[in-house]
Amino acid sequence: MKKGLLILVIVAAVLLLAAGGYWLWQRARRPDLATALAEARRAAQTPTPEASLSATPAPTPTPGLTLLERQLTGDALPLQYSAAVALGERDDLAADERARLLCAALQAEVDEPSTDAPRLRDAYLEAHEMYRLRLTRSLGQLGPDGLPAVQAAADEADGLAREHLLVALAYLGQNEVLPEVRALVTDSDDPAVRMDAARALGLLGDRDAIAALTAALDDGHCVPASDSLGEYTICPVRDQAAGALDALGLAVTRHADGAITLEATP
Amino acid sequence: MKRLLSTVLPLLIVLANGPPKASADEPPLTFVGSLRYVESGPMAAQSGWAAGIMWGSAVAPVAGVRLLSGLGALSSLGDNATLARLYDQLRSTVPVDLAGLLPISARYDARVTFTLVQVAPNRLALQQGALRWTLTQQAELSGEGTVISDQFVGQGEYALNTEHDKIDLTFDLRADEPTFALDVAIAHPMPINGLSRWSALAGLVQLDIRAQNGIETFGGQSFGEPIPPEVVSSEPGTHAIAYSRSGTLDQLSGTETWRDVTDTQLLVSYQIADRCYAVIDEPPHDGRLTAPAEGERSLEGDLRATVLPDVHASQLEWTLPPFAGHEPHYDPDDRRGADLRFWFDAPLPGDNAAWGPYQLEAAFVEAAAQACEAVPARQVRLFFSRDAHNNPDGNVPNWFYYWQQTPAGQGHGAAMRYDPAEADWAAFRGYGNPWLADRIYLSNLFRDGELLLVNPLTGQVTTGIDAYAVVVRHEWQHLRDYAAWWGQRGYQQLTEDAGDRDKIPDALEPALGFSPKLFDTPGLGLGDAEYSAYRAEAGWRIGAANAQDWADPGKQSR
After folding, report:
1. Where are the domains of chain A?
2. Of A43, A82, A228, the CB nearest to B454
3. What is the mean pLDDT of residues B212-241?
């Protein structure tokens, strides 16, 4: 009985000690008045986020696919163009993903051309034409890893988007598309497609394209432009066809009136 | 067993006393504060026939009913009800506006400054203080030959009495967010002056109550017989201020306004702090001060500070250093106060380095210099209006004038000309005009608002001063190419560039990677000469001139 009481007292004492310790610990945690006021003052004087921001500007991150996609799908052509350039060059990003974004952007541009965008500095083409050329060239830079996605997009596309995608496939070295690309040099309704198709054929050394390229020397699409020398007219399809023929080893002559002719083969 | 208890119990007793107290040498905390208390309406009325009648006939009955019928609903207000919520609840029971209905206008305005001293770990009490008050009271009732009017005014100062007056500030630090409770109870004598007159029977009977320094005398006349003056009150009346407020520590300054049961509008504004200090509110830290786009002033702005307690505001003196060699002007002239305006009557500086960081100071002077903490200096940033033309040249926009002095100007200075008539953003005109081959022209880069440029070769996007820099770099490359390709002989289109008119000598094109027969060899929509210029743009490091860009809008103005 006596032993039981002793145990009970010991347990009670331990519990009391524990409770007292906890209470003391809680009290110790409470700040004194001066500390509480100092904390309140400190909180009130915390710099505003805006001020903090200006004090330590964050470094500009390298854009990832998400940001590039946002740029591409925005409505500022300079940013769209910039993203198109980046997607052509960013080997650190998956080629199929880049192809997907570029193909989608191309389709979007075809569906809703940026005809209101001002010309880029010193350009003779309209901004929306340059943008489509840029998208095509970037697709052409993707390499073998991007080829399946571009091929799939071309298979599904039609119209102007398909024409650009065929040229992109040509840049990617797909010889199967060359017959269609040859036809584009003269048959496409879009001068940007015709000029780019001509250039691609010359780049690929496609001698079967000589007839189409020669015919393109008479392409009637000419645009007025101006620079510090004044106004001038440029016929970009003819120019690119001449360049391609030149690349194929055929001599072309540019005449004073702007006409370009193929020199007779000896 | 006894030994155990004798060990444990003392320990528990020690624990119950809590942690060791702070050193006895530690001085008690003192707080300073100010409180403004304004009554506007029937409650502020101090004396007079008219006020008494209105109180008896309307104010007191309505207030009584409101109190009786509203008390039952008070339990719904919760623990932290403010006086404003309390009175809103009471007044809602009798929806009339006594202050608007009754022909009485009375206003009592008191400003209290005080010092509190720590009397317990979490409690401070009044140590000393002063109250300044003013009162105006006007009231008039008339009808059927009877006019009853009150006209009283008064003002005075009162030293708070620590025995009778109370300003208690207690803190509860147990919760996660410490709170305070403020209780104010002050009663002070209010000696007023004025006259209350009851004129009946078209003036045949006139009963007056005159107040002179709070001593009220009854007198008048009845049917031509004077009523001998009789002192009815030899002591001035008193006015009481009662206010309580609780809240978190960040609410130690605040303002509250409400209408009481007599529809008197009350306003209480209080500021309490454990020190006297000032915080500069305007201009904000690291804030932007932009020179006006026009006018004679190069800079102007507001200087505002919160001074706690605000009685020291008149002893806060501002100092602004000269700007571009000119001294500032202030309004008011003595450059003291919590709310000033400043300006510089001078043209804009010629040096871009004059813009940017600018440090202004405010300091307490006279008695406040001892009582208050030093005010940290405030750094702001000075900007010019980007598109304005009020630089010393006056004929070019400010961005053109100042940016050419920065790294973005790339040292070309006088070789850059401004021509708003230039159709493109910029131009090198040397090809058609050899005598212009030593300069480049910039048009108004911001004619369409914000400038957003993309380099079609690199995809680099530029805005603001970076766009300016790449345009300069682009055109300067044309200038360099012209010098390298055509030199002294000048551009020879017919003989040496006849192949494609791309401004590159046909003979040089193969070496440069271009075809002499193509205007646009890469086929991207640009003449061949442009590719060289666009490639040169890549030499500009984005952001390299940000630190010198003091345009608004600009890289540092946001």
Report:
1. 65-173
2. A82
3. 87
In a domain, B6, yes or no: no
Q: Is the CB of residue B456 less than 8 Å away from at least one CB of chain A?
A: yes
User: Which residues on chain A are in Cβ contact (under 8 Å) with B472?
Assistant: none
B88 and B234 part of one domain? yes
Q: Does the beta-carbon distance from A83 to B523 stay under 8 Å? A: no
pLDDT at A240 exceeding the cut of 80: yes
Instruction: Say yes or no: A195 contacts chain B, CB-CB below 8 A.
Output: yes
Check which CATH number belongs to the domain holding B300 and give it: 2.60.40.60
Please check whether residue B390 lies inside any domain of the structure. Answer: no
Residue listed under structure tokens 């505002």: B304
Q: Please report the beta strands in B6-76, taking only residues with DSSP state E, as ranges in sequence order.
A: 30-40
> Residues B143, B187: contact at Cβ < 8 Å?
no
Residue numbers of the domain that contains B533: 398-552
Task: Mark yes or no for CB contact B122/A28 under 8 Å.
Answer: no
Mutate to test the interface with B, among A70, A120, A232, A255 (most CBs of B within 10 A): A120
Question: Do B174 and B136 have their domain in common?
Answer: yes
Q: Looking at beta carbons, which residues of chain B come within 8 Å of A125? A: 525
Residues of chain A contacting residue B428, judged by C-beta atoms under 8 Å apart = 228
Do B251 and B295 sit in the same domain of this protein?
A: no
- State the pLDDT at residue B15: 45
Residues B97 and B207 in one domain: yes
Q: Does A67 touch chain B (CB under 8 A)?
A: no
DSSP-assigned states of every residue in chain A: -HHHHHHHHHHHHHHHHHHHHHHHHHHHHSPPHHHHHHHHHHHHTSPPHHHHHHHSPPPPPPP-HHHHHHHHTSS-HHHHHHHHHHHHH-TTS-HHHHHHHHHHHHHHHHHS--TTSPPPTTBSS-HHHHHHHHHHHHHHTS-GGGHHHHHHHHHH--HHHHHHHHHHHHHTT-GGGHHHHHHHHHH-S-HHHHHHHHHHHHHHT-GGGHHHHHHHTT----EEEEETTEEEEE-HHHHHHHHHHHHTT--EEE-TTS-EEEPPP-
Residues B224 and B296 grouped into a single domain = no
Same structural domain, B359 and B402: no
Inspect the interface and report whether the beta carbons of A34 and B29 lie closer than 8 Å: yes
pTM, rounded to two decimals: 0.68
Picking from B353, B385, B417, the residue at the C-terminal end of a domain is B385
Q: Which residue of B has its CA nearest to A10?
A: B4
Residue B7 inside a domain? The answer is no
CB-nearest to A123 from B11, B493, B525 is B525
Q: Are residue B244 and residue B358 in the same domain, yes or no?
A: no
> Is B459 in contact with A82 (Cβ distance < 8 A)?
yes
For the stretch B11-64, pLDDT in tens is 444 444 444 444 456 778 888 888 989 998 877 887 777 777 766 776 677 767
Rounded to two decimals, the ipTM of the complex is 0.79
Task: Over range B382-391, report the average pLDDT.
Answer: 96
Q: Which of B247, B273, B299 is the last residue of a domain?
A: B273
Q: Do B534 and B430 share a structural domain? A: yes
A-B contacts at Cβ under 8 angstroms: 170
**Would residue B119 count as lying in a domain?**
yes
State pLDDT tens for residues A105-144.
999 999 999 999 999 999 999 999 999 999 999 999 999 9
Between B177-181, B260-264, B301-305, B373-377, the lowest mean confidence (pLDDT) is in B260-264
Closest Cα in chain A to B285: A51
How many domains is chain B partitioned into structurally? 3
